[in-house]
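In response to reviewer comment 3 from the previous cycle, which asked for concrete evidence that the modeling workflow produces usable outputs, we include below a single protein chain processed end to end. The sequence was submitted unchanged, and the resulting C-alpha cells are shown without manual editing.
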Amino acid sequence: MSKFRTAALLLTAAALAATHDAGWTQRIELKTAVETAVQTNPEINQAVENKTAIEFEREQAQRLFAPRISVEGSVGIRRLENSTRRALGIANNELYPMEGSLNVEQTLFDGGVRRNEVRRQAARTDGAAFRVEERSQFVALQVTRQYLDFLLQQRIVAASEDNIDFHSKLVTDLREGVAKGSLSIADQQQAEERQQAARARVTEANLDLVNTSASFRTLTGLDLVDGAALPPSLAGNIPATLEDALARARERNPRVREAQADLDAAHALVRKSKAEMSPTLALEGNARIGDDIDGFRGETNDVRAGLVLRWDIFNGGIKKSKVQEMYRRENEARYRMDQMVREAEEDVRVAWNTWDAQGKLVKELEEQSRVSDELLRSYRAQFNVGRRSLLDVLDAQNTRYNVQVRTETAKFAQFYSEFKLLAALNDLLAAMDVQPPAAAAAVARERFKVRPTPEMNPEAMRDPK
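The workflow returned the following C-alpha cells.
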C-alpha cells in the first residue's frame, strides 16, 4: 500500500523532473522563447513592415512642402492651316516642331492641407507602432500559453502513467485471486477493461503533448524537444486592486492606444477637409525652348514666372459635404476607441476573476485530492477483506485521477491568468524583461506636434439632406 500513500506526490515529482532532470541540458526558458518570438514571429514582422510602409507615406506627405520640378521634351511633324498662313502662302508648308520645357511650382499657401496630411500620417504611424506593440504582447501571451500548456500536459501524462501503474498492479493482484479461486473472472475482466481505458488516456495525453509542442513551434520556430522549465511568477507586477488595473488598462492597453491614434488621424482629416475649402497660392515658373513651335517657324525661347491664386468658389457644396463626412468618420473612430476601452476592461476583469477564482479552486481541489487518496486506500483495504466491491475501488481511482488532472489544470489556469492580466495592461513584456521591436516606439505625433483630439462639437454637424 506504500504506492498509494505516495501517489499524491507523483505530480510534484513530475514537476521536478520537468525542471531539474539532469538528462535535459538545454531546456528552453520561457523568456528565451518570448524573445525569439518577438524577433521572428511572422505576425509581428508583418506589423513592423506595415509601420515602416506608413512611415514612407508620412515621408511622402512631408515632401508635399518641396517644390515640384518637371521637364518635358517633344519632337514631331505638324501641318497647320489657318487664314494667316493661307494669306502668307505657307499653309502647305509642314512644320517640324522640336521643344524642351522646364516647369517649376512651389505652393506657398494651401490653408493647411499639407500640414494636416502630415499630421494624419504621423497619427497613422503611431497607430501602426501600437499595432506592433499589441502583436508583440499578444504573441508573447500565446507563447506563454503554449509553454505552460506543455508543462501541464507533461503532468497529465505523468498522472496518466501513474493511473496505468495502479491498474496494472490491481490486475496482477486479481489474477492471483482468480487463480486461487477467491475472485471471479468477471472482476479480473472489469479491471482489465479499466486498464485499457487508462492506456487510452496516456495515448491521448501524449498526443496533446506533441500537439502543444507543434503549436509552440509555429509561434517561436523552436522545438521543446529538450523540455521546459516552470517560469517564475509575475504576480508582483499586478496592480494592488482591480480598479487600479482597470485604470491602467484604459491608458496603456495597446488596442486602446491604437484606437486613440486612429482618432487623431480622423481628426486630421476633418481639418484637412476644411483646409481644402481655402484658396491656394503658388509660385510657378516655366521655360520653353524649341524650333517650329506654336505654329511659327524658327527658334523660340519663352520664359515666364509668377504668382498663381486658385480658389474654387463654388462646386455645388461638395467640399462642405466632405467636411460633414469627415466629422462622421471622426465620430466613428471615437466610438471604436470607446469599444476598445470596454473590451480592454473586459479582458482585465476576466483575467482578474480567473486569477482570483482559480486560486480558491486550487485549494479546494488539493483538499479533494487528499481526501480521494485516503478514500482509495480505505476502499482497497476494505476490498481485500470483502467489505467493498471492485467497482468501488475502480471508481475511487477514477475520481482520484480526475481530481489530479483538474488540480494541475487549475494551477496552470491561475498561473496563466497572471500573464493574461499583464498583457491586457501592456506590461507583459516589461515584466518578463523582454524588449519589444524598435518599431513599437510611437513618437511621430510628438515629433510633428499633433495635438490631442478635442471633443466633438455637435453644432458643427448636420444631418444629410
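The first helix runs from residue 2 to 5. We consider this sufficient to address the reviewer's concern, and the full set will be provided in the supplementary archive.
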